[in-house]
Amino acid sequence: MNTKTTLLLIILLFTTKLSSAQITIEPGVKTPTSFAIIIDETSFEKAKDAVLAYRSVVESDGLGTYVFSRNWESPAQIRELLEKLYKQQKSPLEGVVFVGDIPIPMLRDAQHLTSAFKMDQRRDWQRSSVPSDRYYDDFGLKFDFIRQDSIKPLYYYYTLRADSKQKVSPTIYSARIKPLEKGKEDKYIQLQKYFLKVVAERTENKSNFIDNFTMARGHGYNSESKVSWSGEQIALSQQFPELFTAGNSVKFYDFETRYPIKNSILNEVLRPETDILLLHHHGANDTQYLNGYKSGSDVNTAKENIKLYLRSKIRSAVERGKDKEETIRYYMEYLDVPRSWCEEAFDLKKIEEDSLYNLSLDIHFSDLLKLKPNPRLVIFDACFNGSFYEDENIVGAYLFNDGKTIVTQANTVNALQDKWPNQYLGLLNTGLRIGQWNKHMSYLEVHLFGDPTYRFANRSAVDFDINLALTQRLKDTKFWLKVLNYPNADLQAVALRVLFDANYKNISDLLKTQYFKSTYMTVRMQCLRLLAQLDNDDFISVLRSSVDDSYELIRRISIEYIERNGSEALIPAYVNSIFNDESSERVQFKIRESLKHMDLNLLEKELKARYELRKDYLYDHDRIQNFIQLVARYKETERDDVEAIFNKETKPGAVRLNIVQFRNHPATKFADDLLRFAADKSKDPGMRVIAAETLGWYKFSHKRSEIIKGLQQIAETSENKELAYEALKSVNRLKEMEQ
């Protein structure tokens, strides 16, 4: 081998070692807290200059920033590093962003930490697991590794341990910056352009404050309740009082404001002044669902809707293999319509028209790639829009695009409608980093995408650094008691949360007092939610009143708490809602859902007594009589489902369904039955495990202490290790509420 060849080999070896070396860049400034960029080697190599420019912008905002570039081997490797950075005395970690191809934790056996996800885990693991970065940012959650996915190597499956904390309360904040696999450009070019977009916006518009806010909702959201919709708008006026003064823009788009509403909302997506775009609708990974069939009472609208329905149903049935003639005859008889309406399903012109019509109803991934989204923050209160693990996803289409969109919040799986979507949102008006805001969203599925350190300029009267207060002064109860005097709705709300978490000794009395004296809707909502965790006399006292609160969301959530608590002392308040809150569609929806899970004897008695007192002041007697009759019918079959699980003739699938229904509706009156089933050695071991897990959902029950004792006995005496483990896990879930 000659000298030149030897030298070339040395250079090649050195270059290979250098390119695959682990890179660590320490913060360039000393700050009270720090931030970390976790990036894969290839992404850093391809977008290094843009990443470092972003780091400089973050540091110029007073946040020392690490960069860690690795060929990351597992989520555990990353979490260990983050915990180490958080525990250091000087400049502890406050947040992290995951850039590029970073391992995705797929969490199992933790559905109680989501708002709505309850898929049978026997199904495909890719679908029945929750993609969640709570593995990385909530150090109190403990997991055991199961396996890495053989098809999607970024997926790492974990199970939540029984000895883990059993509620979500992130230690640090986090976000994802994962370019699209099916974007307009190479994914590394997407990364470069995204970071340069962030740098430009944060450099050129440092003093940008929130003065342009748009909110919209799609069809089917919250029962399309106008009372719910208006209540949210009033609450926002308290959260952002400056927005509702001259010189500011606040817009509210309902799905019926214009038909279809898509173009109007896309106008807001393109509007360069928009600071926050808040969207309530249903969703998929690649679609924002906005409209269904056109509403209207005129004959032509009704006729066209029927014909659209027929074409869709008949066409899809034939595509699935159904006989064409048989399908046409079925729908002709079913809806009593002429044959000509049905045959339109196969008219080529109609097929094309229907295709274009369907595209006009919703916002699609392909639509967004053609646009330049500009809202700095986009909030998707929808299912699956945050599916960053999919090749095509809505959040990615907003971020990895031209325009000025910096950060989005969305859900990685399906999400509950009846939650508090605007919690602490007004704090963004005080200069709070968006990551700090999202940190308080307590579900596995809620994620940030984009730059979590971005913040709007402070335009409020708050005269202290809110970011430092929420990282450095969390144990300073004297400080937070003083904060309660600030005339700021969400600042007071978060102060109550901090005092609650700090175990302030008089917290229960404080929450009750604040509920009854506060004029702020979000403060009262905060009091109710925190008192629910205490489940004491103060909670019952507030709950009796909260069913009549002026804020529809409080009334709605109160019905849910009454159902889950199951105390007979709350029956009069529940009946009060039946009589007095007829105009609130979503409240009535909650009542109808919960009715059969109440103590039906007491409910029937209270309904009849209240009717006798009020009948002279009622015009619509039938409505109340219908409720009374419905309760009577429910009484006839009240125990059918529970008795079926003890019946040897009941098929296993039916037994399972009859048990797991109590996850969504943990009826206190059936808790003893579930405990008896879980303890019964003659029952199927797997079903007993399911019963023990289901009892963990009874966290708001007034019989929680009794349920804990029963589960503890099972955990201590059962020879079935899986059952004992699940019983212990449910015990810890229920005890979490008592701490």
- The structural domain count equals 5
Q: In what order do the strands lie side by side in the largest sheet?
A: 11-10-12-16-17-18
Rg calculated over all Cα atoms: 28 Å
Segments where pLDDT lies below 50 for 5+ residues?
3-20
Largest sheet report:
6 strands, mixed
Give the terminus-to-terminus CA distance.
73 Å
Output the CATH class name of the largest domain: Alpha Beta
Q: Return the CATH topology of the largest domain.
A: Rossmann fold
Which architecture of the largest domain would the CATH scheme give at its second level? 3-Layer(aba) Sandwich
- Number of DSSP helical runs: 32
Mean pLDDT: 96
Count of DSSP E strands? 18
Structural class: alpha/beta
Question: Strand percentage, roughly?
Answer: 5-15%
Helix content: 40-55%
Helix and strand arrangement:
Blueprint: H1 3-19, E1 23-25, E2 34-40, H2 41-60, E3 64-70, H3 75-87, E4 93-99, E5 104-108, H4 125-128, E6 130-131, H5 134-137, E7 143-148, E8 155-160, E9 173-177, H6 187-204, E10 212-217, H7 226-239, E11 249-253, H8 262-270, E12 276-280, E13 282-284, E14 287-289, H9 299-319, H10 324-335, H11 339-343, H12 348-361, E15 363-364, H13 365-369, E16 377-381, H14 394-399, E17 407-411, H15 434-438, E18 446-450, H16 466-472, H17 477-483, H18 489-501, H19 507-517, H20 521-534, H21 537-546, H22 552-565, H23 571-580, H24 585-594, H25 600-614, H26 621-636, H27 640-646, H28 652-664, H29 671-679, H30 685-695, H31 704-717, H32 721-735
Parallel strand pairs: 2-3, 2-4, 4-9, 5-8, 10-11, 10-12, 12-16, 16-17
Antiparallel strand pairs: 1-3, 5-6, 7-8, 13-14, 14-15, 17-18
InterPro entries: ARM-like (IPR011989), ARM-type_fold (IPR016024)
Protein name: HEAT repeat domain-containing protein
